[in-house]
Amino acid sequence: MAEAEALNILGLRQALLAIERGECTALDIIEACFDRIEAREPEVGAWQLRLSREAYLQQYRQQQAAYEASPLKGLPVGIKDIIDTAAMPTEMGSSIHTGRQPVDDASCVAMLHDAGAITLGKTVTTEFAYFKPGKTANPRDLTRTPGGSSSGSAAAVADGMVPIALGSQTAASVIRPAAYCGAVGFVASRGELSLRGVQPLAQSLDSLGLFARRVEDIQLLHALLLRQAQPLSFEAEIKPRRIALCPGQRIGESSAEMNDALNQLAERLQAAGVDCVQVAEDGLLEQMVEHHQRIMAYEVARNLAYESRFPDQLSEPLSQLIDSGLGLEHRHYLDSLLAAQSGCEQLWSQLGEVDAILAPAAPSVAPLGQGKTGAPHMSRPWQAMGLPVITVPGMQDDAGLPLGVQLIGRARNDALLLQQALWLESLIAAR
Amino acid sequence: MAEAEALNILGLRQALLAIERGECTALDIIEACFDRIEAREPEVGAWQLRLSREAYLQQYRQQQAAYEASPLKGLPVGIKDIIDTAAMPTEMGSSIHTGRQPVDDASCVAMLHDAGAITLGKTVTTEFAYFKPGKTANPRDLTRTPGGSSSGSAAAVADGMVPIALGSQTAASVIRPAAYCGAVGFVASRGELSLRGVQPLAQSLDSLGLFARRVEDIQLLHALLLRQAQPLSFEAEIKPRRIALCPGQRIGESSAEMNDALNQLAERLQAAGVDCVQVAEDGLLEQMVEHHQRIMAYEVARNLAYESRFPDQLSEPLSQLIDSGLGLEHRHYLDSLLAAQSGCEQLWSQLGEVDAILAPAAPSVAPLGQGKTGAPHMSRPWQAMGLPVITVPGMQDDAGLPLGVQLIGRARNDALLLQQALWLESLIAAR
Questions:
Q1: Catalytic site positions of A
Q2: Where is the Amidase domain (chains A, B) (predicted)?
Q3: CB contact under 8 A, A203 and B225
Q4: Run of H or E residues at A384
Q5: Which residues pair with A138 in a beta bridge?
Q6: In which band, very low, low, confident or very high, does the pLDDT at B5 lie, cut at 50, 70 and 90?
Q7: How are strands ordered across the β-sheet holding B207-212?
């Protein structure tokens, strides 16, 4: 039987298996999660709002038979506070929306509830999923940023408070906090998962994000959110034949320790028989960073029309983003959209038979301090191209801080990317 | 001065000009709109919910100075009841959401309010913007369908109840009701206008729609919704050099009277010096109809996850759509997405230097009866391709019923399409 004190760090599938085998009950795991939250939340600050233990247990017991018969057994999920929930406010990290109570659950939330998950609470987001941080600290080192914008979801999952959480990514809002906190973070291909009820920031960039501690749990969530008939069926790992390495410098600033980590991983990939090639040194990805910024500024300025009425309640970086978006000419925005599309075609055409791209998930370990969430450039190119991406944790620096890498797949081949990430996860864990 | 009884049928720009010239006041126009609504609404049934005359005037007078200084002067707009509004429920044409009160205005609504428009009411939509009709009749012939899903917006504008209205299109939900009722209906390029707060149906197909009685008013709305610095600046008409004619039969069933109308219009285009070519007879657009249906079914089944809990409150056609979407394999959905993209490239590459495509906006005049909203196939190909489209009214059959044609532009060239539609509108009016 799993030890009581370790139940909160089981992965979702591990927990379901332990329940199925009678090694523990769902209530044991729920209690262990609340124990962890009560011990750690004062320091970590992952939650914007959450159910009390009593309220959670009451909800569970009222429908215990239904939860016991459900795929997810009444286990808890954290929901980023940019995603609408009918039972709790959604404040988007902004005082403009204090106490804002949506009337509906987002479709992704409804699907998880239908599968038997219970929303334990809303996790901290930066202001409108942009730059201004909330109260969350990095659970691996409380003096560092957890990254953003899905700060609370990444921290809560990495710290063992919940097995799974939802987030969203427009720039680097899932991949980076997952890297900094040491969690698995997955961003679906653009258009792949329903965003109904997820507050939009930039329609050409937004994508749903999933957090877990193991890749197999992302596979399960992904299947549930596609309403697949057999979400619990197992998709086996696939070893990639050829990987394109993307050194951080191809995109922008990258720390020496991150460069070393990627090189070490490349050696291990080759030792495992994976053919490794390099992404061309042609400036393409740096251009994509610029195009991403332009698309984001233009679209945010239109989506946040209502919030523009309250300039005193917008942070300086967000005001600047909106102003720069309003100042952009439509034809320059259009140029960037077209450049992102043709850049994507050019990239994959150069890479040929490559299965996936491997790159740093962030420029370094999580920076010290909590005034900023770290630089987002490592994610901008793939997000501009609408590709599926996953942060695979497990690498670390000499001090033991997480150094996340990201695996990038072909558009709309999310399931295949997850199967390859499952293999990469094993490789990293096997050292 | 404009005559009192005609004020309700002025276009939006015409009304603004009449106010500026002192020929009438905004209040005169508002009163004329309410006179028309009170006379006609019992028969037309365009409104799901609306302000009383007294409530509207109270809102206007409370901020009269601000409205007088605003671009839109406090004039009324109708909002399709699939678009969230903070001051009135948004019920999406479904008993599942009776009395559902959103907490926010959609961004498009907020932008119109910022420009000085007042939401007069919510216009009738079919169930979740799909097939099941609401109570609206065709104002041009009350025994016929107004089309759908933006039934109320099209009818209210065509009948002179409001100068402008918002809608949305996933299949044919703007272009077809505009054609049946004799209004201008515009569908923006996919991704071009913010859909924040517009309830999604299918993310790869949804687009915002605008209704007016004159193309110049669509230009004004379009500029406002892009937060352009000078929305009232005039964009002059542009005569196309070359138009591709798309006979209805290239897409599917098309009535003899519609075919005749398109042929007559082609003759007038050629007489006006426009080079006319024909869309190739290669089956491409019929294939696009199929791909559109498949994409829609797949995505609707995920977006309406919450509503799937209430099978007894879903219409038979919607239940069937969801079931067929749940039964679709992901790879077949993906095939259709790719086919829509490559079909779009193939089409424009065949057409070469063509400025726009001209096609029937619907297979015929509005069908008799109100149990169905007419066939949507004339819109499916362009919607699958994400193109901007506008219904230009003015043609009619021998009985005087509207026969709408649609002008289809290149993706993301919405402003240019509107300038060409302005020219086409003059040509049709000049007979």
A1: 80, 149, 173
A2: 28-418
A3: no
A4: helix A380-385
A5: A141
A6: low
A7: B47-50, B118-123, B76-80, B164-169, B207-212, B184-187, B389-392, B405-408, B356-360, B242-245, B275-278
Tell me: the pLDDT tens digits for A342-397?
999 999 999 999 999 999 999 999 999 989 999 999 999 999 999 999 999 999 99
Arithmetic mean of pLDDT, B146-161:
97
Report d(CA A295, CA A290) in Å as an integer. 9
Q: Answer yes or no: is B425 within a domain.
A: yes
Q: Fill in the amino acid letter for A297.
A: A
Contacts of A306 in chain B (CB under 8 A): 104-105, 107, 110
**Nearest alpha-carbon partner for A84 in A161, A171, A168:** A168
Helix (H) or strand (E) holding B76: strand B76-80
The radius of gyration of chain B from alpha carbons, rounded to an integer in Å, stands at: 20
Identity of the residue numbered A75 = L
For B184-263, strand residue ranges (E) read 184-187, 207-212, 242-245
pLDDT, average across residues B13-26 = 98
Which member of B94, B107, B173, B204 is catalytic?
Answer: B173
In 3D, which of A199, A184, A188, A176 has the Cα closest to residue A225? Answer: A188
Quote the ipTM score: 0.97
| DSSP strands (E only) in B81-206 | 118-123, 164-169, 184-187
Mean confidence (pLDDT) of chain A: 97
Q: Residues A194, B200: contact at Cβ < 8 Å? A: yes
The rounded distance, in Å, linking the Cα atoms of B129 and B373 is 11
Dihedral sign for Cα atoms in the order B164, B104, A224, A193? positive
Is A314 contained in some domain?
Answer: no
B227 at the A interface (CB within 8 A)?
yes
B232-263 b/e with 16+ CB inside 10 Å = b?
eeeeebbbbeebbbbbbebbbebbebbbebbe
Around Cβ A218, how many Cβ atoms within 10 Å?
Answer: 26
| Cα–Cα–Cα angle for A66, A71, A73, rounded to 5 degrees | 55
Over residues B4-11, the mean pLDDT reads: 85
Nearest to A358 by CA among A427, A284, A290, A279: A279
Q: Which two tokens stand for residue A314?
A: 């917008």
pLDDT at B104 over 90: yes
Looking at residue B327, its pLDDT comes to 97
Strand, helix or coil for residue A303: helix
- Considering only CA atoms, which of B363, B36, B425, B50 is closest in space to residue B216? B425
| pLDDT in the model for residue A5 | 54
- Distance CA(B45)–CA(A103), nearest Å, equals 27
Helix (H, G, I), strand (E, B) or coil at B423: helix
Residue A217 tokens, joined: 């749990």
The answer as to whether B393 is a domain residue is yes
Residues of B in contact with A102 (CB under 8 A): 102-103
Which one is catalytic: B94, B107, B149, B189? B149
If 0-12 CB within 10 Å is exposed, 13-18 middle and 19+ buried, where does residue A114 land? Answer: middle
User: What span, in angstroms and rounded, lies between the C-alpha atoms of A259 and A122?
Assistant: 35
Looking at the domain assignment, is residue A289 inside a domain?
no
Chain B CB contacts of A299 under 8 Å are 194
Query: How far is residue B320's CA from residue B297's CA, in Å, rounded to a whole number?
Result: 9
Count residue pairs from A and B with Cβ separation < 8 A: 90
Virtual CA dihedral for B103, B109, B110, B112, nearest 10 degrees? -160
C-alpha to C-alpha distance for B177 and B376, rounded to whole angstroms: 10
Per-residue model confidence (pLDDT) at position B2: 44
Q: Which domain holds residue B46?
A: 1-279+352-430
Domain count, chain B: 1
User: Domain with A426 in it: what CATH number?
Assistant: 3.90.1300.10
pLDDT band at residue B234 using 50, 70 and 90 as cut-offs: confident
Residues A102 and A425: their CA atoms lie apart, in Å, by 38
